[in-house]
Amino acid sequence: MPIASYQLANETRDEVFVAAAAHFLILSEPTRLKIMRSICCGEKSVTTIADQTGTTQPNISHHLRLMHRAGMLSRRRDGSQIFYGVADLGMIAICQTICERAAIAIEREALALTVLPRLGEQETTADLEGAADLEGAA
Length: 138
Hints:
Elements: H1 3-10, H2 14-27, H3 30-39, E1 44-45, H4 46-53, H5 57-69, E2 73-78, E3 81-86, H6 89-137
Antiparallel strand pairs: 1-3, 2-3
Helix pairs in contact: 3-4, 4-5
């Protein structure tokens, strides 16, 4: 069976949705998205990941353990250091897409907050001028 057919046949099975939701649950924590960004170009030590994400080493170790158990990250030991990498490269694309969408939404919201009030002021000014013209005509 071709891969595409296998994927389509399995899309409607509840267990697929449950597994997908579990992945989104793991990624629902901002620190874990920062971790994915930190290691998307290659594996890094726990210390480097903690520095790049601005998180303490004990906290980052907790998140890395959860992500590793979920199968998102690979792990290897080199002496006293542990290195983590992305186990499933498809997860990088998902994280990038979601973060890009969030950034666009934030930019749109910021634009709406700065442009719409100015438009509202212009309309209010025009409405006041129009009302004054009507009063003068009466």
